[in-house]
Amino acid sequence: MAPKSPLRPVNHQAANHKGPAPRRPTREDAEAAVRVLIEWAGDDPDREGVKGTPSRVARAFEEYFAGYATDPVDLLQRTFEETDGYDEMVVLKDIRFESHCEHHLAPIIGRAHVAYLPQQRIVGISKLARLVEVYAKRLQIQEKMTAQIANTLDEVLQPKGVATSRMLGAFRTDPSTRREFLAIIGQPAGATLVNV
Q: Are strands 139-140 and 90-101 parallel, antiparallel or unpaired?
C-alpha cells in the first residue's frame, strides 16, 4: 500500500457544505489519475519507461503543494516584542520561489521582496522566506500570492506597514517609506513590482 499523503488541502466547498465533507482522494486515486493522463496523452502507462511515473508524479505533487499542510498564521505566531525600540524597515529581498499556476499547473519561478515596518512585534527573518514558500507551494496566481503574503504579515504582526508588490499602511500612504523600500530592493521609485 502506498504511503498516506501528507497534504491536507483546504476544502473551501466542504466548509460551506452541510453534511459530511466529501471524501479526499487517496494516493492510489492520484496515481490512477496520472495513469489516465498518460493514456490520454497517447502513451502506454505500463511501458517500461513510464511504469513508475504515476508514483513519481504523486510524490512530486506532495512536494509541489506542501504549502497546504502549513497554516501561515501559525508559522508567524512566534514573534518577539523586545525590539529595543527598533522601528526601521525589515526587508528580505530576492526570496526565490517555485510555484504552479492554478489555471494550467504550469511552473512559476520567481523572486519575492518582502518588507514591513515593525510596530511592536517582529518575527525572525527566516520566517519571511518561509511564509513566501508556504504560499508558493500551493496552486497560485502571482496577484493572489502577493495579497496573501501581505495580508498575513499585516494580520499577525500588525506592523505600521507591509510591502510586497501590494503595499499596505505606511508603504502605501507615505511616499518616502515607499521610495526607501524600492531603493533597497533596487527598483526605481515609480516602478511597479512584478516579482511579488
A: parallel
Determine the 3-state secondary structure of 48 from DSSP: helix
Does pLDDT of 97 surpass 80?
yes
pTM of the model: 0.78
HSE, side-chain direction, 13 A CA sphere, residue 69: 9
Residue 98's CATH number: 3.30.1130.10
Distances, alpha carbon 45 to alpha carbons 3, 26, 54, in Å: 21, 19, 8
- Number of domains within the chain: 2
Residue 15 phi/psi, 5-degree rounding, is -65, -30
Q: How far apart are CA 162 and CA 186, in angstroms?
A: 17
Range of the domain at 58: 24-64
Give the confidence band of 182 by pLDDT, cuts at 50, 70, 90.
confident
- Print burial letters for 105-118: b (CB count within 10 Å at least 16), e (below 16): eeebebebbbbbbb
Q: Please tell me whether residues 78 and 44 are part of one structural domain.
A: no
CA 80 – CA 120 distance, rounded (Å): 8
Same domain, 103 and 132: yes
